[in-house]
Amino acid sequence: MFYILILLLFSIIIYIFFSNYIVIKKENEKLKSSVSKVLSISANDPAIEYLIHSLEEKINSLNKKVMFEKMKRKNIYSVLNNISEAIMLVFYSEISDTLILDYANKSAQNLFVTEDFLGKTLSEILEDHNLIDIILKSYRQDKNISDEIIVYSPKKSFFHCEIKKIFLESENNQNYRIVVLRDITKEKEIELMRREFLTIMSHELKTPLTVIHGYSETLLMSDEKLSSQALRFLNIIEDESSRLTRLINDLLDISRLERKDYEYQFKEVNLSNLLKKMNMIFNSLTKEMDINILLEVEDDLTIIGDEDRLMQAIYNVLDNAIKFTHIKDSEKKEVYIRLYRENDEVILEIEDTGIGIPERERNKIFNLFYRVDKSRTRQVPGTGLGLYIVKQILEKHRAYIEVDSEENQGTLVKIIFKGGNENEASRYNS
Predict the structure, then answer these.
(1) Is the pLDDT at 225 greater than 60, yes or no?
(2) Tell me: domain 2-183, CATH 3.30.450.20, correct?
(3) Calpha distance 115→120 (Å, rounded)
(4) What is the β-pairing status of strands 157-167 and 145-151?
(5) Which residues contact 38 (CB under 8 A, 6 or more apart)?
(6) Is 365 helix (H, G, I), strand (E, B) or coil?
(7) CA 274, 275, 280: angle at the middle one, nearest 5?
(8) Reduced to 3 states, what is the DSSP secondary structure of residue 226?
């Protein structure tokens, strides 16, 4: 968010600077016109004294404006040079087919291989071409760009790059781009450490937990007579080891999903059939809980997706809907599953009649490890990972999710997919 504010600030500053430059330029042209008039008047003309006096006033006024603009420019440069983000102003020269640097603050200058950079092409001052390529992409596609890039010079660094089109009134009316780079190398390193820690910890814990769970299950199924207290303790051990095993499996799953080299198996998926299969999976559970699942699904609606991962995401959402409906003290316990097409979109709705989500917590439910107010949901087992996994899977499918909820009334989760066919599957892997 901060670098977006920087981008806007820089745009405003550049606009003010150039607009004032144009004003002074026009004043200068007026001054030249006045000089021409004076030169055209003969020396004995009585009006010459008035014109000279008027000319002196204009010169003094213009000098003051020039001094003010110089001071303002100095202050602007001082502000920009103290910003940690790298900021550049570049334009594309059609004559030489190159990107020309018009301005760079001190943070941006650290990326250059030469101190003499103004007016030079980016290929002359940058060893790394990743940045040049993404700026050229902005020109070719004629749009603003927000992306992450790796710059290898002077050292390997990760940057979040914002490129914004800006049109400035100048002598040659160049089509400018503002480039803002925020160094996210430390964030990437911390994120990598977190993932490695979760992976190592999960693998190290999985084996002993499997052993504990296996022994407790064996003892519970054995023919040996155990005291009621021993049985109670064994049941607790089995339940808790199962819960920790689920947590570890979720952590390992997240670790896999977050890896950039993780490959989804995209193909044409019949979402209608998948939901009918899901309904059968939950059928026995919902009967025990006295919950009705109402299926309103259009036939043969297809999308491009990884069927296993989609099933996992929908399972997590539906599982939440059932669990939070079950704990509500109400005679009406229903979960609605709707699937329909709207223009070029396929929309899946899962609506429950459960306890709902407080408004202050709705924008947090997809965060890692986040659980809704524990005082209201302590009866529902969970790790706070399920919806985070849903978010990861749906983002890869270029789908988006909306949540509408009212406390003690229920929650509506809407997932919007772009419809497609198997020929489009390759674009999801790009």
Answers:
(1) yes
(2) yes
(3) 11
(4) antiparallel
(5) 48, 51, 52, 55
(6) coil
(7) 100
(8) coil
Average pLDDT over all residues of the chain:
80
Q: Which residues contact 307 (CB under 8 A, 6 or more apart)?
A: 265, 267, 269, 274
Packed helices 228-258 and 386-396: angle between N→C axes, nearest 10 degrees = 20
- Is the pLDDT assigned to residue 423 strictly greater than 60? no
**Considering only the top CATH level, what class is 267-428?**
alpha beta
Q: How far apart are CA 174 and CA 166, in angstroms?
A: 9
Confidence of residue 52 (pLDDT cuts 50, 70, 90): low
Q: Binning pLDDT at 50, 70 and 90, where does residue 310 land?
A: very high
Which of 2.60.40.10, 1.10.287.130, 1.10.3470.10, 3.40.50.880 would CATH assign to domain 187-258?
1.10.287.130
Q: CA-CA distance, 42 to 290, in Å (whole number)? A: 107
Terminal Cα-to-Cα distance of the chain (whole angstroms): 26
Coil, strand or helix at 375: helix
Report the distance separating Cα 83 and Cα 134, nearest Å.
22
Domain ranges of the chain: 2-183, 187-258, 267-428
For the chain, how big is the Rg over CA atoms in Å?
33
Strands 302-305 and 175-183: unpaired
Report d(CA 247, CA 241) in Å as an integer: 10
CA-to-CA distance for 85 and 2, rounded, in angstroms?
10
CB count, 10 Å around CB of 108?
Answer: 23
pLDDT of residue 29: 58
pTM of the model: 0.59
Strand partners, 181: 86, 161
Q: What is the pLDDT of residue 95?
A: 81
Q: What is the residue-wise DSSP string for 279-331?
A: HHHHHHHHHHHT-EEEEEE-TT-EEEE-HHHHHHHHHHHHHHHHHHHHTS--S
Q: Which of 267, 338, 273, 337 is nearest to 300 (CA)?
A: 273
Structure tokens at 309: 């991962």
User: In terms of Cα–Cα distance, which of 194, 177, 249 is closest to 10?
Assistant: 177
| 213: phi then psi, degrees, rounded to nearest 5 | -60, -40
The mean per-residue pLDDT over the stretch 49-69 comes to 73
Residue 31, pLDDT above cutoff 70: no
Average pLDDT of 420-429?
52
Q: What percent of the chain has pLDDT over 70?
A: 80
* 373 φ/ψ angles, rounded to the nearest 5 degrees: -15, 110
